[in-house]
Amino acid sequence: MTLSGQPILAYGLALGIGLLIGAERERRKGVGSARAPMGIRTFASVSLLGAVSFSLGSSILLAVMAFAVVGLSVSAYRLSHEQDPGLTTEVALLLTLLLGGLSMREPTLASGVAVILTILLSARNFLHRFVSTVLSESELNDALILAAAALVLLPLTPDQYMGPFNALNPRTIWMIVILIMLISSTGYISLRVMEPRIGLPITGLTSGFVSSVATISSMGARAALEPHLLWGAVAGAVLSTVATFIQMAMVLEATNQQTLLALWLPLTCAGITALAYGIVITLIALRQKAPDSINLGQPFSLKTALLFAATVSSFMLLAAALNQWLGSEGVIVAGAIAGFADTHSAAVAVASLVAAGKLSANEAVLPILAGLTTNTITKAVLAILSGNWQFISAIILDLILVILAAWIGAAFALGYF
Asked: Global pTM?
């Protein structure tokens, strides 16, 4: 059975949308003479009005009805603004009209948006409390910066290779920057939510997403200054290497999936080895007293993210130049040199060459592992410079086992065994 060529089911969906949103608003109306003028019947009627308007006059009549609803909402606001100065109900009513019309053409999208709107409306107290008392001003600023980077700048960034040696893709570079900020923010949130008694292992794992090299250095210094936290510091340093391989997989996924497929076995072998070693050390660390407090810092550093972008771009140029001058052997040298400073930027540079068609995915394995190896040397040197002998021996053993696992995995992946 149909109505004006539209299935009855679509009108039923429009009614359901109005009832869903209206039920939430009905609970907020209050009682007596001070109650709000819009409730479940109003929202259900407006949603049906949107559906019928779209059926009879398509988007033109729906637009006319939208102006009419805006007029009615203005009148209602004038009567009730002293009791409730907000405009949430009025805006929700207009959106309900549009969702009623949308349900006639995109029913799945309309129902999904209706559910999201209802969740937002019902979470009023939580959202107000979170923004006003839980979220600090600096955290809000960082969230806005991240949103602007992902939602405003990323769509405007060119998605093509350009520059010297045709080596730079601005979209890829900016996606990596956003990913670094997201990863750093995720680590920050985990520390913010969890109790400080969880201790150094969680701190090491989350901060390892920002910089495993820096994490190992700071954990070594803590172990030297506070010997009673030795194994907690070791666990944090070891788990930061787990973060290295997780982050490596994520940046390769964002840059070039073929490269990730070629490296999945080496990364998996190394990651599992680091995780197993880290679990053993963490079990030992849990017997020690966790630190009373943790310095959270900031969700992310924009300066660090931009510096990372500059580093990635530099190594992209270096890898492309050496590839043109020396062939694939030059890329291995470039990856090894870049790895001393940052293994992820080296991996992005090499994976970008694969994306540009200048290397095969298998040819990218050795340069990226060369970068991982030299980065391991950097970690070992910093562990020696910062920690005591117990910390040094535990970390050196971890680094050796992990990099051996990566190379053994690569040998199997490339068919040497």
From this structure: 0.54
